[in-house]
From TrEMBL, chain A:
<dbReference type="InterPro" id="IPR036318">
    <property type="entry name" value="FAD-bd_PCMH-like_sf"/>
</dbReference>
<dbReference type="GO" id="GO:0016491">
    <property type="term" value="F:oxidoreductase activity"/>
</dbReference>
<dbReference type="InterPro" id="IPR002346">
    <property type="entry name" value="Mopterin_DH_FAD-bd"/>
</dbReference>
<dbReference type="GO" id="GO:0071949">
    <property type="term" value="F:FAD binding"/>
</dbReference>
<keyword id="KW-0560">Oxidoreductase</keyword>
<dbReference type="InterPro" id="IPR005107">
    <property type="entry name" value="CO_DH_flav_C"/>
</dbReference>
<dbReference type="InterPro" id="IPR016166">
    <property type="entry name" value="FAD-bd_PCMH"/>
</dbReference>
<dbReference type="InterPro" id="IPR016167">
    <property type="entry name" value="FAD-bd_PCMH_sub1"/>
</dbReference>
<dbReference type="Pfam" id="PF00941">
    <property type="entry name" value="FAD_binding_5"/>
</dbReference>
UniProtKB/TrEMBL annotation, chain B:
<keyword id="KW-0500">Molybdenum</keyword>
<keyword id="KW-0560">Oxidoreductase</keyword>
<dbReference type="GO" id="GO:0016491">
    <property type="term" value="F:oxidoreductase activity"/>
</dbReference>
<dbReference type="Pfam" id="PF02738">
    <property type="entry name" value="MoCoBD_1"/>
</dbReference>
<dbReference type="Pfam" id="PF20256">
    <property type="entry name" value="MoCoBD_2"/>
</dbReference>
<dbReference type="InterPro" id="IPR000674">
    <property type="entry name" value="Ald_Oxase/Xan_DH_a/b"/>
</dbReference>
<dbReference type="InterPro" id="IPR008274">
    <property type="entry name" value="AldOxase/xan_DH_MoCoBD1"/>
</dbReference>
<dbReference type="InterPro" id="IPR037165">
    <property type="entry name" value="AldOxase/xan_DH_Mopterin-bd_sf"/>
</dbReference>
<protein>
    <submittedName>
        <fullName>Xanthine dehydrogenase family protein molybdopterin-binding subunit</fullName>
    </submittedName>
</protein>
Length: 262, 763
């Protein structure tokens, strides 16, 4: 770790002011950032902690949607979304381990856009809106690629609004060491449409599986997926699984998620 | 003597300390003001160092010292690590020097190249980044086997040794004359030891003497190595081991960092501290296993083994480790023919250098490897011969009436009731119910297999040990030459002394790991600790009983030959006096007989013991994903007389968990350039609690005749049995699909691919 300054603002306005200065980066739960600092892979001059800002914490139902503020931890989401959006609560409950869930936040996860992160799949499948300090961005336009998002310098994630599906399931095939997603599928079933998103598998990060969405919107059944498979191009190949394996596991996870809901 | 049979499950007294954060590990006791060390490590797997400029680093803030091979040697130190080489028929194994700090050439990623010592760790790291290091890459070689660029000029073709044992002509002839011959190639994957506490140490100068505190498996080896490296007298050196968070063989070997830290402390006259980080451990810790064996079993028409041949290629890593050359050769041979009446056996082992960290002992060291090969080959043989695996073993067991039995590899087993233990195992693991369990799994879309391993272990390590008993005013110290790495020694040794002498356990304090207090000891390793230490304690009890008896006799004016000690009290003829050992100690103190109050006695054995038993594993495989779970695990062991059944069972649980790790999840992967792709726990998968089923432990003991307690060592047995049991279970589950050559670790992708290939072939 290189030396850095740590600021602990208590209001969003204060935090944004600090982040507008050169060399400042936001720090949320630190579950991604601290390990990279320890390995000396990042060299911020100042970290602005978002963990002491009350207005960034909380979960509320807004009509047909669930709004989760950016500083909400995974553990808080497990409890807060349990009755309203159990599929999302279940997803949050399977992120990392208790220590990670107690510290890590949805804002940090969404901003980081790790190709194996869980929330992006839920956001894409439900058609969520990402709230930032400056604007609102549709999930489809927010996740741009490997660790890449629509966020500009100094802009932070303040919340995510998820339309609540009738039913949803997250089937996560875990990478055996990290327990991140090796290939995971979020299926969200709404009145008139079905959303399907895949994470862990693609070099471009989480993505919507539109062929699966179309097939399931027409007929929500495992049989409707007959013959459907994910192309291998652009999928991740590493020591835990080749691209073909990830493609196949995504298919298996999709079918299991649908079977659980059908 | 009947007290040995008490076999009480006494709870571990040290656990309160460990569980309440009162354990004292290296990092808890570093003296204030210590300098911090950081190692610059080889960034590539193989290459010539063309430039190394440390001048900027030396000038950097807070830096006290930068050491490289050149400055290390210039300071008068010997830039070479100690190791042993194997004796061969025509000479000995290769002995290329292993530097403390890389000297002109780097041979594996993570090899220490320079050490920076500074006031703070951050300063040392900053300075390390200022060292300009240029390396001209050479091609890397990962074998194991001949090929690649020579890593050492002393070892053409990268061959370190070519060792064999057995009568080749006789074995080949017997195989040729066999009814059936089964040949299988069995890789045994490399594992990282990953103890919970990484390697670390601090070294301080105490009035001209050097004190190294490190987390090891004993203090005496390091003491000699420091003396040789720094050109000091052993008497000028004190080595201590505080609480140690797991060793598994890794911490039995002195690593280069310790010698570099000792050199720095001596040069600077200040305390220097280093604690490895997890990734440093993955890169530079001695590795385990890493071999591939081809096993050939010949059978007669009745399924009896006619001859056994094993040809092994093993990876030694970039350099000889302390014992590297012995593991897949001599140690492997100790139990190579297992529990079977095999009279013709041939072992051929070749060790090769590669561009990975050195390989050394890892829980079991050679014996898990040998049993894995034999027992997995037996699993294949049962399948190929169409004989029930339990039956095939029964037909080949050494019969109980042939003991003591000298095996084909020249090892004499004292006792063995293998068929009896196997029958118990068959009951305990409910083999009869397997088909029903399998049907249940299949109804849920899963494959299920049952695997058996009948293992035998050979206890290793020094065959002598010392025990010193010090009668203080308030407590009795028991000084031991073994070293706890967390196994519960403080409990076992104190309890045993208490049982033997009547001294209340609460008054006994076990002292270990200080070369100034304890002159010599054998440390922990090879499952030797309890057998050897208790043997020494027995000798101490006898010695104390005799010398106290003589003192009493003189005092009371009776014939010393008539004074007896009955494990609690001394009895004198015609006297009401029946003092306890502590009471006699008080009398001796009052009489000024200090010579009686501190006594050292030596225990030695001519032979070690041979724990054995059956592991029965059941695996369940999800054929759609390849995910494999060990769902049932039953161990039936013969550990002779159990000293503390609870701790023995705990050792088995831990050993089996480590075996499950190697068999299912643990995998070390290097890329072509020698970079380690599994250098953190995000990529190296240790088994988690959910990966380990409840392990049923049963005991069917036949006392060893090689030690007075009748016990058999149990520290490594769990790992020895697990690999083949799980591999055979995989075979059982997958063979019906046509998969018979799948190797550990059985990761989801690997299992899925194996199943997928048969589907593609069938389509
Ligand atoms: C062992 C382990 C297992 C894990 N397993 C999983 C898993 O299974 N699934 C999963 O999804 N994740 C997993 N994670 C990641 C975890 O969810 C992290 O918490 C998350 O990715 C980052 O959130 P954080 O709050 O910790 O962010 P931090 O680490 O604090 O920050 C991450 C990055 O985002 C930036 N940032 C932080 N907050 C904001 C914000 N509000 N707006 C803009 N930028 C911001 C930071 O500057 C930094 O670049 C795991 C992590 C660990 C250590």
């Amino acid at each position: 770790m290189y030396d850095f300054e740590l600021a602990r603002p208590t209001t969003l306005a204060e935090a944004l002011e600090m982040l507008a200065e050169e060399g400042s980066d936001p720090l949320s739960g630190g579950q991604t950032l601290i390990p990279s600092l320890r390995a000396r892979l990042a060299m911020p001059e100042r970290l602005v902690s978002l963990m002491h800002i009350d207005e960034l914490k909380g979960i509320e139902q807004r009509g047909d949607a669930l709004h989760v503020k950016g500083g909400t931890t995974h553990a808080q989401l497990v409890h807060g979304a349990y009755d309203i959006f159990p599929g999302l609560a279940s997803l949050a409950g399977r992120i990392g381990d208790p220590a990670v869930r107690t510290r890590g936040t949805i804002g940090g996860s969404v901003a980081n856009n790790d190709p194996a992160a869980c929330y992006p799949a839920a956001a894409l499948a439900t058609g969520a809106t990402i709230h930032t300090s400056q604007r609102e961005v549709a999930a489809d336009d927010f996740f741009l690629g490997l660790f890449e998002t629509a966020l500009e310098e100094g802009e932070i994630v303040t919340g995510v609004t998820f339309p609540i599906p009738q039913a949803s399931a997250y089937e996560k095939f875990i990478q055996p060491a990290s327990h991140f997603a090796l290939a995971a599928v979020f299926v969200a079933r709404f009145d008139t449409r079905v959303g399907v998103a895949v994470t862990g598998a693609s070099e471009d990060g989480a993505f919507r599986w539109k062929e699966a969405e179309a097939a399931l919107t027409e007929d929500f059944s495992v049989a409707a997926l007959e013959g459907l498979s994910l192309p291998e191009q652009g999928l991740i190949a590493d020591v835990h699984g080749g691209a073909d394996y990830r493609a196949r596991m995504a298919g298996v996870m999709l079918r299991r998620a649908v079977a659980a809901l059908a | 003597m009947e007290k040995f049979g008490k076999s009480q499950p006494v709870r571990r007294v040290e656990d309160v300390r460990f569980l309440t954060g009162k354990g004292r590990y290296v990092d808890d006791i570093v003296p204030a003001g210590a300098l911090q060390a950081f190692f610059l490590r080889a960034p590539v797997g193989h290459g010539i160092i063309t430039e190394m400029d440390t001048s900027m680093a030396e000038e950097a803030e807070g830096v006290a010292l930068v050491l490289t091979a050149d400055s290390f040697k210039a300071a008068g130190f010997v830039n070479e690590m100690d190791f042993d080489v194997i004796e061969l028929e025509d000479g000995e194994g290769a002995a290329p020097p292993r530097p403390v700090l890389a000297d002109g050439r780097v041979r594996f990623v993570g090899e220490p190249v320079a050490m920076i010592v500074a006031e703070t760790l951050a300063q040392a790291r900053d300075a390390a980044e200022m060292i300009s290091l240029e390396v001209d890459d050479l091609p890397c070689w990962f074998g194991p086997g001949p090929g690649g660029e020579d890593i050492h000029p002393e070892a053409p073709g990268n061959l370190a040794y070519d060792w064999s044992m057995g009568d080749e002509a006789a074995v080949e002839a017997a195989l040729a004359a066999s009814d059936r011959v089964v040949t299988v190639e069995l890789p045994d994957n490399r594992v990282a030891a990953t103890p919970m506490e990484p390697r670390g140490c601090y070294v301080e100068m105490e009035g001209g003497r050097l004190h190294m505190c490190f987390n090891g498996q004993g203090v005496w080896g390091a003491k000699d190595e420091i003396a040789a490296c720094l050109g000091m007298e052993a008497s000028e050196i004190r080595v201590t081991n505080p609480d140690v968070g797991g060793g598994f063989g890794l911490k039995g070997a002195t690593h280069p960092e310790q010698l570099a830290i000792a050199a720095a402390a001596k040069m600077l006259g200040r305390t220097v501290h280093w604690m490895g980080e997890r990734t440093e451990g993955f890169l530079s810790d001695n590795g385990g296993r890493d071999l591939v064996s081809t096993a050939t079993l010949g059978f007669d028409a009745e399924g009896r083994i006619t001859a056994y041949k094993v040809e092994t290629l093993s990876n030694l890593g970039a350099y000889n480790s302390n014992y590297g050359q012995f593991i897949q050769s001599e140690l492997f041979s100790k139990v190579a023919p297992g529990t079977y009446a095999i009279d013709k056996a041939l072992l051929k082992a070749k060790g090769y250098y590669t561009n990975s960290a050195p390989v050394d002992a890892y829980r079991g060291a050679g014996r898990p490897e040998a049993i894995f090969v034999l027992e997995h080959a037996m699993g294949h043989a049962a399948l190929q011969l169409g004989i029930d695996p339990f039956e095939l073993r029964r037909r080949n067991f050494i019969p109980p009436d042939s003991f003591p039995y000298t095996s084909a590899t020249g090892v004499t087993y004292d006792v063995g009731e293998f068929a009896k233990v196997l029958s118990r195992a068959e009951e305990h693991s409910d083999v009869a119910g397997f088909e029903a369990r399998k049907a249940e799994s299949e109804a849920a879309g899963k494959l299920r297999g049952l695997g058996l391993c009948y293992y035998i272990e050979s206890i290793l390590g020094d065959k002598q040990e010392f025990a010193t008993v010090v009668f203080g005013e308030n407590e009795v110290e028991l000084h031991v030459g073994t070293q706890s790495n967390g196994q519960g020694h403080e409990t076992v040794f104190a309890k045993f002394l208490s049982d033997q002498t009547g001294i209340p356990m609460s008054r006994i304090r076990v002292v270990m790991g200080d070369s100034d207090i304890i002159e010599w000891g054998g440390g922990t390793g090879g499952s030797r600790s309890v057998t050897m230490q208790n043997t020494a304690t027995l000798a101490a009890k006898d010695g104390i009983a005799e010398s106290f008896g003589a003192f009493l006799a003189e005092r009371e004016g009776v014939d010393p030959a008539e004074v007896t000690f009955d494990d609690e009290r001394f009895r004198l003829p015609g006297s009401n006096l029946s003092p306890t050992m502590l009471e006699v100690a008080e009398m001796a103190r009052e009489a000024g007989r200090d010579d009686l109050l501190k006594q050292t006695h030596k225990g030695s054995l001519r032979n070690m013991s041979f724990p054995n038993g059956a592991h029965v594993a059941e695996v369940e495989i999800d054929p759609e994903t390849g995910v494999t779970k060990v769902v049932r695990y039953t161990v039936t062991d013969d550990f002779g007389v159990l000293i503390n059944p609870m701790l023995a069972e705990g050792q088995v649980h831990g050993g089996v968990a480590q075996g499950i790790g190697q068999a299912l999840t643990e995998r070390v992967v290097f890329d072509e350039e020698g970079q380690l792709l599994t250098a953190t726990f995000m990529d190296y998968a240790l088994p988690r609690a959910e990966d380990v089923p409840m392990i049923a432990f049963h005991h069917e003991g036949t006392p060893s005749t090689f030690n007075a307690m009748g016990m058999k060592g149990c520290g490594e047995a769990g790992t020895v049995g697990a690999l083949a049991a799980i591999s055979n279970a995989m075979l059982g589950a997958l063979a019906p699909l046509g998969v018979s050559d799948i190797a550990m670790p059985f990761t989801p992708e690997r299992v899925w691919r194996a199943i997928e290939e048969t589907r593609v072939a069938a389509a």
